[in-house]
Amino acid sequence: MRCLAALVLSFASALAPISVAAAAQPWDYAKIAEQEARLAAVSYRLTTAGAGWCPVTAPQPGWLLNDPRRFDARKWPAAKLFYGVEGDGPFITAIAPNSPAARAGLRRGMRIVAINGEISPDLGNDPPIRIDVVGEQLLNADPKAAFTVTDGNGQTYRLDPAPGCASSFRLEDEGRPAVANGKLVRVRYGLAQSIADDDALAAVVAHELAHNILRHRARIAEASARQGSGSDRPARLVRQTELEADRLSVWLMADAGYDPAAAISFWQEHDGPLIRAATHPPRKQRIAAIRAEMAAMTAARAADPGAPPQLVTSPPLLE
Description:
Layout: H1 4-14, H2 29-49, E1 57-59, E2 63-66, H3 76-83, E3 91-95, H4 100-103, E4 114-115, E5 118-119, H5 129-139, E6 147-150, E7 156-159, E8 163-165, E9 168-172, E10 178-180, E11 184-188, H6 189-194, H7 198-213, H8 216-227, H9 233-255, H10 261-269, H11 283-303, H12 310-313
Parallel strand pairs: 9-11
Antiparallel strand pairs: 1-8, 2-3, 4-5, 4-6, 6-7, 10-11
């Protein structure tokens, strides 16, 4: 099993405590839960549909998790009542339709105590850590095998195999609109709420998922170490990975049954400050890359219906 102590260092440095309870006013958990349900459904479809060509897969239960420690103490009683949480520890906030979690009878508010009989350790006081430990346990499980989940009452549920691209997902109430750190995709509540169309939401989630699939954080670090210092190199590397993520999102969306053209519509219509111009490509360039990748995918799949994305089979060198 991978070292969980290393997990603490990696996630503690990447994530700061964030209170989801402040996402909607006045503490409107019904609205928050609506967006959590959308994210759970979209992310489950995207990850499982791409499992055949993703280089790293993991079991995808089809849930989103949260933790009592991430809530403001004044607001937690109302959140606890809404979600129906009993006790302390990571709990389910949303379940994707027809996912292993849904078929096994798991419910919103249920605590996750163990995976495959292994109790999820409490490794620290940082609010996200306990959730991330559960994600790490899933990464260590066989994606093609059934697995078990034990709840806070000691009841064990058997979940059907559902391999998917290795990533977890979380709805947040602050921070960047959408971001990926290699193992986790975070989407801000305000952004999700502003996107009424599920295909457009899938475009955002697929883009961030693509960053994790293509190991962009690690590859940027590797390229920076290889190239040495240079004032414009970090920004140039980020711009390259942004275009790669745009391109791979086309394949993720198409395989999951979403319309890849929604990514074009999103960039044409979204007028909020979603990106930083200094490190991200211009919208016109992103739209052109998405159009070109749609054409390339159509041609590749016409010749071979099971053709994988070239970005995955032969990722270009970042330079």
